[in-house]
Amino acid sequence: MDNSLIQKKIEKVFLKIIKTKITLNSNNKNVKKWDSLNHIKIVLSIEKEFNIKFALSEFDEINNIKNLKKLIKSKIN
Amino acid sequence: MYFNSFSFILIFLPLVLIIYFVIFKNFKKEYLKIFLILSSLFFYAYWKIEYIFLILFSIGVNYLFSKKIKENINNINFFFSAIIFNICILFFFKYVDFLIFNLNFFLDNNLNYFKITLPLAISFFTLQQIAYIVDTKQGINKNRSFIDYVFFVTFFPQLIAGPIVLFREVRNQLNKNSNFFFNYKNFNLGVLIFIIGLSKKVLIADPIGVYVDVGYLNYLEINLIESWILTFAYLFQLYFDISGYADMAIGLALLFNIKLPINFNSPLKQRNLILFWQNWHITLTRFITSYIYTPLVMKINLFSFKAAMVVTFITMTIAGLWHGATWGFVIFGALHGIGLVINHLFNRISIKFSYFISWFITLNYVNFTLIFFRSENISQSIAIIKSMLGLNKIVLPGSLETLIGSSVNKNIEFGTYLYNLGTDSFLFYYLILSGIIIFLFKNTNQLQKKFNGQFSYLIAMSILFVLNLINLTSSYKFIYFQF
């Protein structure tokens, strides 16, 4: 899956769950609605979108878009 | 053995370093790991030799379980057995007497107590191994060896009181050959962080702790000013004690080229309770979020705000109980649960205060919860809270008598107003000084980023080190050792 498609799908999930447009530099500190509950919703939605599964301890690593992309890439390839 | 003891700083640590980097210099890395494991076990056994068998038993059983879990990834029996095994060990050594106390108290029983000495580090190595078991079940930790696993649990810098490390954080570093050679830069940085941590403990937390102990003994006598100074003194003592310990752990690990995750990042500067927990005992917060909060929310499967708030409250109450087997710790956790729920509610309806006001409320709320954390029992907490509300005695400094006049209110006395803390105004000025360090200085993480072997740092560290040695007494244990 190419990079821009991954980015687009991620953006779609964030728009759906917290109605926020994210960029590559977004993280759970600078996105206001990205709290602990929405975090779980976002991660589960990403799992569905890409048909992958995250381990519980990976939830914590997904605190910014760069890490999220890295983790997604490691799982779909 | 404690980090703040002569036997550790002047004998154990130098010996281990010399053997590791000089005498065993050309040894294979597996032998070096085994040497550090043996050193760590010696470090642990130095305190109480019997419990060495407990930790080895726990490590052995967990490793075998993890092996079974890996081989039978779809069989959840091994996974649940492993989790129950860890909880049982923790429950027996830490909570069984608390259960008996409650049975005796509420059901009028007269059961005998087990009177077990809490094994050092048990709360920490149990959490690390639970995380390991869960991660293994979820397909993480694919590459591992028994030696790496034992190293991960026993590594002496983090063994006793954290940071609570994940296996993969350590394993990746153990696979790098260059990490087994002396690294000048890491070593310097490690020494710097260790000395900062040691100073927090020896030069700040311990001197304050002396008066906190006196104040808590005199809890029925303390007046309004004393009670406020006492509680803030404890807040500062606790912060310097456990963040100092974390610094020392991180510094020591760095001497061996192992980077541990940071555990404190100026929590007392934070403007709300959510941010407080994101910066206070960070690896504990990570554990309870990853392994309690998230699975509970997913299990309930409602994903509503209400459900999440209930889970937040439950999670924090469990986290409170993790600190120790008393109702005080349960209340401490529950109060933080309530505080976090209120914080989330405020965020949801967009209530916002200025930085100063929200910081002030947060700091005082944390300080309030710590009364339950420190008190021997609930009636002590209540007595202290009463004093803070001015319901006990109000004694103002004698110098104010001429200014205000004694006729204002009969309940107000004038005189030595810090008498019950066993001090004159020394503690007061000492707290102001510590407050300046907490609120205005850079924290250890920020300081180390600026460090590049500058001469000024070296001079400051040498002076601090000498001061530490002069004031070093092993009589003060770390607060987190009781957890």
Walkthrough of the structure:
- The complex is a heterodimer of chains A (77) and B (483).
- Chain A contains 4 helices and no strands.
- Chain A has 77 residues and is an all-alpha fold.
- In chain B, α3 (51-71) packs parallel to α5.
- The two termini of chain B are 16 Å apart.
- The A-B interface holds A 35-37, 40-41, 44, 55-60 and B 131, 134-135, 138-140, 166, 274, 286, 289-291, 293-295, 297-298, 303, 305, 308, 312, 344, 347.
Q: Identify the most extensive interface between protein chains.
A: A-B, 12 and 23 residues
Overall spatial form of chain B: globular
Q: Helices and strands of chain B: which structural class?
A: mainly alpha
> What strand line-up does the widest sheet of chain B have?
1-2
Average pLDDT figure of chain A: 89
Sequence-ordered SSE layout with sheet pairings:
The complex is a heterodimer of chains A (77) and B (483).
Chain A: H1 3-18, H2 36-50, H3 56-59, H4 65-76
Chain B: H1 6-23, H2 29-45, H3 51-71, H4 76-107, H5 122-137, H6 146-154, H7 156-159, H8 167-174, H9 184-217, H10 224-255, H11 273-279, H12 282-300, H13 305-323, H14 327-348, H15 355-374, H16 378-388, E1 394-397, H17 401-404, E2 412-415, H18 426-440, H19 444-450, H20 455-471
Parallel strand pairs in B: 1-2
Helix pairs in contact in B: 2-6, 3-4, 3-5, 4-5, 6-8, 9-10, 9-20, 10-15, 10-16, 10-18, 12-13, 13-14, 14-15, 15-16
